[in-house]
Amino acid sequence: MASPRLEIVLQIVAAWRSHDIDTVVGHLADDVEWHYHVGSRPIIGVVGVRKTLDRLAGHQLDVAWQIVRAAEGEDAVMVEGTDYYRTPAGVRVRVPYMGVFQFGDPESNRVTAWRDYVDLALMQSAEAAEPQDPWITSLVERPGLL
User: Partner of 62 at 20 to 30 A CA spacing, among 16, 30, 54, 92?
Assistant: First the structure.
């Protein structure tokens, strides 16, 4: 049985698979800080997150985001897995993913910070339908556990 906070993260994952943006942002604090790609400027607030997710929904089709494992600390849930989606050009993309979902006070059920760790160069290469190295293939072909 998943912890309450892991269950919230899994609900976010399930909602994004169907592009249910209302449900995704419904789990976020109004002033959430989202690093869509750690290393890029964060998006602050649900309005900005919604705009970004709306844009991504048109680019990431047939989403099958898979979580391979999860770990939970005092105020955060970390997940590892694979981003699976299809581009509008029909290219199937599979890239390793790691994310941290941080919650506010101990009673909070809202995500206050969300950090995605994904290799943008690898994602761009996959979107260009370039062959993936065997060690990447071994990571993205692991079965989803959650």
Answer: 30
